[in-house]
Amino acid sequence: MNTGTLVGSLIFAFVLLLLVTWLIQLMIRGWRRRAQRQADLIGELPPVPDTVGPVLAGPLRGLYVGCTLSPRWHDRVAVGDLGYRSKAVLTRYPEGIMVQRSGGRPIWIPADTVLAVRTERGMVGKAVPTANHDGGILAIRWRLPSGTEIDTGIRADDRREYVHWIEEAR
C-alpha cells in the first residue's frame, strides 16, 4: 500500500468515527429529552410494600420489555430505568403485582390501579411471532399516582402461564 492510499484510508476512518460518535450523541440527547418531557406525566412510582399476602399467581420468569404510555404501544417510557429491558420475575399478590428486574429497581403495581391484563403481539419494538396469532407479550395496563395510564410488558419464558394471569385479573 502506498503512502497516499494509507493517508486517505486513515482520514476516511477518522471521519467515519466522528460521524458515528455524533449520531450516538444525538440518540442519547433524544432519550434524555424524552425523559424530561415524560417526567411530569410519570411522577413517582408507588412504593414497594414491606409485607404482602400469599402468592396468587407466579412467579413468572421472562424478559421485562418495558413500559409505554397508554394506548400508544410504541411510546416507550424513558423516565428512570423503566425503559430498559432486563430479565424479570412477575409475581401477583392480593395487594398487587411485583415486577422484580435484574439490574433495575422493582416495580410495584397496586391491585386497585390495575385496569387490564391482556396479551399483545408487540410492544416497544419487540414483536413476538406466535403460531396461533395470540399475544406473545403479557401487558398490564395500570394507572400511576399521577393519573397517567401505562402498559408494562413481560415476555415470559413459558407463555402458557398467561392464561392464569388473565383469568386472575378478571
Descriptive account of the structure:
It comes from Mycolicibacillus trivialis. Keywords: Membrane, Transmembrane, Transmembrane helix. This is Transporter. With 170 residues, the protein is of the alpha+beta class. It has a domain of 112 residues: PH-domain like (Roll). 28% of the residues lie in helices and 34% in strands. It has two helices and nine strands. The strands form two sheets. It has a seven-stranded antiparallel sheet with strand order 4-3-2-1-9-8-5, covered by helices on one side. A hairpin with a 2-residue loop joins β2 and β3. It is elongated.
List the helices and strands and how they pair.
Layout: H1 3-42, E1 57-69, E2 86-93, E3 96-101, E4 107-110, E5 114-120, E6 122-123, E7 126-127, E8 137-143, E9 149-156, H2 162-169
Antiparallel strand pairs: 1-2, 1-9, 2-3, 3-4, 5-8, 6-7, 8-9
